[in-house]
Amino acid sequence: MVKHRRRQILGEVENYKKKHRGQLYMDFFNNLDANLPGGFRTRYDESVLDGHLFVDDPSASSRMRERSTRDFFEDCRLAMEKVGISESQLNDIRHRFDQNMGDEEIAKEFTDTLLPIYINLRLMGYKHYPDLIG
Fold this sequence. Notes:
Number of domains: 1
Largest sheet: none
Shape: globular
Number of helices: 9
Helix content: 55-70%
């Protein structure tokens, strides 16, 4: 089941790339990195962290609707950990990307860093939209 799901997710990525000159651009991930450790969304007030971001949104995955914001951020941390990417590594590439907008090499490094994290989150049951990029 996991192999089938992984193939399906990779197929979605490939479909995106076919429409974008064979490239995976940051717009595919939109706000994903904001949800990862060190991202601006992870700095919510404690009262927000214990709430649910998409509890009433039928387009969100059941996993997203059932988990607190804090639990979602923990899943993001675990997805990074599973692929061996540390918060400091992510913050480094995030900083270099922000300082060098338009640098295709750094943008590719950032998308290459985000892709395995994204795949792990999708395998956990999160949807591309609205869960991960909304």
